[in-house]
Design brief:
It contains 4 helices and 4 strands. The protein is an alpha/beta fold. The protein has a single domain, classed as Transcription Regulator spoIIAA (2-Layer Sandwich), CATH 3.30.750. Helix 1 (15-27) runs parallel beside helix 2 and helix 3 (75-83) packs across helix 4. It has helices at residues 15-27, 48-63, 75-83, 87-93, and strands at 3-6, 35-39, 67-71, 94-95. It holds the Pfam family STAS_2. Residues 1-102 form the STAS domain. InterPro entries: MlaB-like_STAS, STAS_dom, STAS_dom_sf.
Length: 102
């Protein structure tokens, strides 16, 4: 079963633990299969903290046996992932906005 998890327009460093905790709470008690689709289309200005948050959310999803997909990534966000050496991470998890969650 696919779980959709959306992030807001801005993410601060203080938000990261809360986001991870929120995702863990959402996944707890559900079968360990399916995807987590993280909708980032609302992000106004992605930055290094955004990349950190998404990396930590991916780890959280993995701890719950889920694959982590990103939907709605802007060219700015894609560029940040590449700049930080995480281009492969995003390429492996990217899901376009045109693809509806299953």
């Amino acid at each position: 079963m696919t779980v959709v998890f959306a992030v807001g327009a801005t993410i601060t460093r203080a938000d990261v633990p809360c986001l991870c905790s929120g995702l863990a709470d959402l996944l707890r008690g559900r079968p360990e299969s399916g995807d987590v689709v993280c909708d980032v289309s609302a992000l106004a200005r992605p930055d290094v903290v955004t990349v950190e948050a998404l990396a930590r959310l991916r780890l959280t999803a993995g701890r719950h046996g889920r694959r982590f997909l990103i939907r709605g990534a802007t060219p700015e966000l894609l560029g940040l992932f590449s700049l930080m050496g995480l281009g492969g991470f995003l390429a492996a998890t990217r899901k376009t906005a045109a693809e509806p969650p299953t």
